[in-house]
TrEMBL record:
The lineage of its organism: Eukaryota, Metazoa, Chordata, Craniata, Vertebrata. Residues 1-26 form the signal peptide. One of its GO terms (cellular component) is extracellular space. It is found in: Secreted. The gene is LIF. Its main location: secreted. This is Leukemia inhibitory factor. LIF has the capacity to induce terminal differentiation in leukemic cells. Its activities include the induction of hematopoietic differentiation in normal and myeloid leukemia cells, the induction of neuronal cell differentiation, and the stimulation of acute-phase protein synthesis in hepatocytes.
Length: 213
């Protein structure tokens, strides 16, 4: 796995001390307006597609995180435990488990991937600016975003068709816009590290709820 060039320099460790956590913005997202759109929203194999997308995201999350770390250079590559502590980001709570109702699971999934989609947008924008030659990392970020958006559209269809849910409350993390290089890199690594944990949990909970291939 290559990064296509060196990082943009070492940021003083002291910067850590200046970090502050800001509250997370929350708002209700209209999935499809005030009702589910008519026929043609769902493909016949939507459950199978959803299964595959979650399994694919779970299978590629760790590599994405590792490559991300490598491409940020020092101190990130050697101090990941300290710098990328996921308690520094507020993910949507994922409180469902195998015994939860399927509807609850689907809503929790939607909230998780809506958050992830927004976070990936920030991470990708920052990496395009900070590590423009890290082609493989950028490819992986683009692929992950594409899969996430396909997954969201499939979840939207399942929620509408099966449960008549067309509105879900979502929260997005903080925007990284206007932050310094160190903080942008750190926010990305915190999100991606937490993502590795949460996607494994999501796969464990969701996959048994969808019919096997
Ligand atoms: C599983 O989730 C449901 C809510 O979806 C909750 O009531 C129950 O206590 C949870 N069970 C465990 C073992 O965490
Ligand atoms: C995903 O995030 C982008 C911003 O990066 C946003 O424009 C888009 O509407 C989001 N898609 C969904 C399905 O939430
Ligand atoms: C960055 O994150 C914020 C908050 O999560 C979100 O509203 C915004 O759409 C994201 N920006 C991009 C380019 O994805
Ligand atoms: C990204 O997706 C394309 C097409 O789906 C695939 O050919 C490529 O290998 C993927 N790249 C990575 C790094 O996953
Ligand atoms: C579901 O996922 C597949 C595969 O990514 C995608 O082609 C499709 O547009 C998605 N949405 C729906 C509603 O089927
Ligand atoms: C998720 O990915 C991890 C790491 O690759 C793997 O060990 C685990 O079995 C996967 N979980 C599911 C439910 O596929």
């Amino acid at each position: 796995m290559g990064c296509g060039g060196e990082g943009t320099g070492v940021v003083p460790f002291v910067a850590l001390l200046l970090l502050q956590r800001r509250p997370v913005a929350g708002r209700a997202l209209l999935v499809t307006g005030s009702s589910c759109p008519g026929h043609g929203l769902c493909r016949s194999n939507v459950q199978e597609q959803t299964r595959r997308q979650v399994a694919l995201l779970n299978a590629t999350a760790q590599d994405l995180f590792s490559l991300y770390l490598k491409c940020q250079g020092e101190p990130f590559s050697s101090e990941a435990d300290k710098l990328c502590n996921p308690s520094g980001v507020v993910f949507p709570p994922f409180r469902v488990n195998r015994t939860s109702e399927r509807k609850e699971v689907m809503v929790a999934m939607y909230q998780l991937f809506a958050f992830l989609n927004a976070s990936l947008g920030n991470i990708t924008r920052d990496q395009e600016e900070l590590n423009p030659t890290a082609k493989e990392l950028l490819d992986r970020l683009h692929n992950t975003t594409k899969t996430t958006r396909g997954l969201i559209s499939n979840l939207t269809c399942l929620l509408c068709k099966n449960y008549n849910i067309f509105q879900v409350d979502v929260s997005y993390g903080e925007s990284s816009k206007g932050k310094g290089t160190f903080r942008k890199k750190q926010q990305g690594c915190q999100v991606l590290r937490k993502y590795v944990q949460v996607i494994a949990q999501a796969a464990r909970v969701l996959l048994p709820h969808l019919s096997p291939p």
